[in-house]
Amino acid sequence: MMGEEVRAEDLEAVKRRIEELRELIRKYDYYYYVLNRPLVSDAEYDELFRELQELEEKYPQFVTPDSPTQRVGAPPAEEFKQVRHAIPMLSLQNCFTEEEFLEWDRRIKRMLGTDKVAYVCEPKLDGLGVELVYENGIFTVGSTRGDGYVGEDVTNNLRTIKQIPLRLLSDEIPPPRLLEVRGEVYMEKDDFKRLNEERARRGEPLFANPRNAAAGSLRQLDPSITAARPLKVFFYALGRIEGYEIRTQEELLTTLPKWGLPVNPLWRKCGTAEEAIRFYHELLKMRDDLPYEADGVVVKVDDFAQREVLGAIARAPRWAIAFKFPAEQKTTKVLDIVVQVGRTGVLTPVAILEPVEVGGATVSRATLHNEDEVKRKDIRIGDWVIVQRAGGVIPEVVAPIPERRTGEEREFRMPDRCPVCGGPVVRPEGEVAHRCTNISCPARIKEAIRHFASRRAADIQGLGEKIVNKLVDSGLVSRISDLYKLTKVDLLRLEGFADKSAENLLREIEKSKGISLARFIFALGIPHVGERLAEILAEHFDSIDDLASASEEDLMRIEGIGPEVAKSIVDFFRNPENRKLIDELKAAGLNPRRAVRAGPLTGKTFVFTGALSSMTREEAKRLVEELGGKVASSVSRKVDYVVVGENPGSKYEKARALGIPTLTEEEFLELVKRG
Length: 675
Ligand code: IVH
Description:
37% of the residues lie in helices and 20% in strands. By secondary structure, it is of the alpha+beta class. The chain folds into six domains: 8-71, Helix hairpin bin (Helix Hairpins, Orthogonal Bundle), CATH 1.10.287.610; 93-324, DNA ligase/mRNA capping enzyme (D-amino Acid Aminotransferase, Chain A, domain 1), CATH 3.30.470.30; 329-414, CATH 2.40.50.140; 439-514, Orthogonal Bundle (DNA polymerase, domain 1), CATH 1.10.150; 517-587, DNA polymerase, domain 1; 605-673, BRCT domain (Rossmann fold, 3-Layer(aba) Sandwich). Strands 14, 15, 16, 17, 18, 19 and 20 form a seven-stranded antiparallel β-sheet that branches. It has a five-stranded mixed β-sheet with strand order 2-13-10-3-9.
């Protein structure tokens, strides 16, 4: 009896010590990760952490999910669960000029019937919007913004971000019963650079910018990958809150840190629109020196009661606006101007630039479009130029800086012979483009094949630029239809192919025979026919032959098709070379039909579990949908088939329990082929 009582007392002491250690570590974490002001040395911290780990190991009954030791360790998930946001996560309206901003300000005041409106200005971070739920101070669920209504459950990934408290601090204010707090997960510029350098060393694909890196890191099925990525977070908005009242943005931004939730310190309360504009300019000046990518200032009405009155339009609240920064520009040097030959034989001058970072990406080349454009902008080889990533995507050379010329610069001249095949180059009357006239110019063929195989066209994975070059240079492929004649023996003769890679490529090529009509039309590379137009055409014509026999008049009756495009399409199909190609592709088995909503799988619902070996989930889904079927994310009685890949999850068990037919990957492919 006595002994047990003593043990119980000991246990009480252990529990107390564990709690004490957690309190300390939480506090030290907050000072270190959020405030950047360490309170203790690393060695001291490590010692406390180890003590906690040891105690928890010895007394597992005391382990709780909010313990600082429990950040990493959740096993990889099979897929993200969906989380519905109790209050939708709206997006923001944008403005780009002071004029537009002042117009917004006037409107706000008109609607509120008062000039007494205070704003809170905050940097607009370019990251990933998230919502975290704290119940009685404990972090329970975290999700991405998703479409604003439903996001993905990334709780276990968010848990690995050291800045995020697993339990809210309560030294100053007790945590509310319920807190849904919203913010931005982001990656700092330096961390992004380091991550990409590491990835380059390991031969992994690089992230285009910090935003993509943050999104890619957070949306990982395996939390241990997220844990290894340098993610950070700032909070700036509320969902629901119960058991505590917050009335203004200012109050929100001063209260969140008391609970241990990081807030970007660069916010400012502004009494007037002019003050807000001043803040915008100050931040714009600091922009390049900020450790993170900021693409503007978010201006919010401070008073929540006023927000209530203003409400929302479409998908954005009236009470906030993103005052965006102009596209980022940098100066760099034009090292050379080279000429690229596209699939239609068009010669495009491309500026080779001294690499610079613009808008979060390294730019080393930029299209100059055509000779006239080069002349118009007067861009010379050796020039210093301003480059810009407009809208954050395609880099362009804005203008030269003539003041920096030394006299060594050279003007660009379009060559009169194709740089690839040496064939004659012409500039047809009335056109801005120069063209190589040799229809079997290898550059044209390579480009045509590369386009045909690209992701949005026939989506033949593994058929990238390098392999296309090899196939064409070796003489194995001289037209698109040759792809469908390739054998394993052919491929094995090429350098760099082994058994497996050859088989993979052949399987990809085989798979492409199931191409949809829209993709097929796009893949042909008809001048002026992009992805969207191809989709429209696929809705109006039953097959490629049907489209090929359309007249210009027929085509112009379709909304969105003008005389130029109609002529281009008719010309394409009039060309005997192109007709021959289509016949060959049909003979190879590519003969898509109009994308009818109804198909052989109409009314059938599929669920996938485990990894497929011949395609990604996304591709499998597309396949089912193209044939009229549906794909669900969880097993219920409404599901017709569960397709079971490698390492299936609990969905497999559930399917068996419910008696729902399961298919192996082969059986699924068989079913799809029959359809
Ligand atoms: S407030 C309804 N504040 O920008 C207001 N958003 O374009 C909701 N963002 O989805 C957002 N910094 O992911 C707010 N200081 C900030 C922000 C911010 C970045 C993101 C957020 C939002 C997107 C809207």
